[in-house]
Design brief:
Length: 249
């Protein structure tokens, strides 16, 4: 699962690892961006033990925006299947900012970081929270190494409204039986997203941690409108490239 940050990658990982044919690494190894110098054996040593019939999954959302990641993954295995969880880039940016703010309360305002010049509507694309949402730009690097048939895009929005449907497509993409279905989910009204029902073995329902489902910072509607305008051409290009309309407009 190579991206994107604040898109729903943790949910996809937690949902898919319910499948008996999938084993997943719980933490983000950051091998293809920060730890590449440690070598492939180090990376392999982190992985859960699997049977020949099982698929190993890891997720590090920053891979999607790391220039070197596609080439490095390709050099490890050109058959790797890649999953990218995307959501409306405006909402994603606000979620990203909300997360940063919870750790560093003294950072500038969202508006202050978003614009180089607000009156001219000049968006600061060097700010990571903005840059990540330019999906079409980042995707180009991946398509130099991997065909679209090896990349599956999950809608972060549909993951909330129809988790079983989105996970059904993920299972099809991975070539495994649709084991994870409606009966695995319930909607947690407090958090505002679906959680896994208790499994026979653990007896406890599994919900994502406290850091998920945070209430977003209130942003001036005009700023949101300007950002929508900024992302529109990138979104359209992204839809056209992947052949899927995510309806963020």
């Amino acid at each position: 699962v190579v991206g994107v940050k604040k898109g729903g990658t943790r949910a996809v990982l937690e949902f898919i690892r319910v499948h008996p044919e999938v084993r997943a690494l719980g933490t983000e190894p950051h091998f293809f961006d920060r730890n590449y110098h440690r070598g492939l054996e180090w990376y392999r040593s982190l992985m859960p033990r699997t049977l020949d019939s099982q698929i190993t999954v890891e997720k590090t959302p920053s891979y999607f925006v790391t220039k070197e990641a596609p080439r490095r993954i390709f050099n490890m295995s050109r058959d790797t299947k890649l999953i990218v969880v995307v959501r409306n880039p405006v909402t994603r940016a606000i979620s990203d900012y909300t997360q940063t703010l919870s750790k560093k309360p003294d950072i500038p305002t969202f508006e202050g970081l978003t614009f180089r010049n607000r009156s001219l509507g000049l968006v600061d694309t060097s700010w990571n929270a903005i840059r990540i949402g330019m999906y079409a730009v980042h995707l180009e690097s991946w398509l130099q190494y991997f065909p679209l048939s090896q990349i599956h895009f999950v809608s972060g929005e549909k993951l909330i409204t129809d988790p079983a449907g989105e996970m059904g497509k993920v299972q099809d993409f991975l070539g495994i039986k649709r084991v994870i279905t409606d009966k695995h989910f319930y909607f947690n009204k407090t958090k505002g997203f679906p959680c896994l029902k208790k499994s026979e073995s653990s007896g406890l329902p599994r919900c994502l941690g406290k850091s998920k489902g945070r209430t977003h910072v209130q942003i001036d509607p005009e700023v949101i409108e300007q950002l929508r305008d900024f992302y529109r051409p990138y979104n359209i290009k992204f839809y056209e490239t992947v052949g899927q309309d995510f309806r963020w407009e």
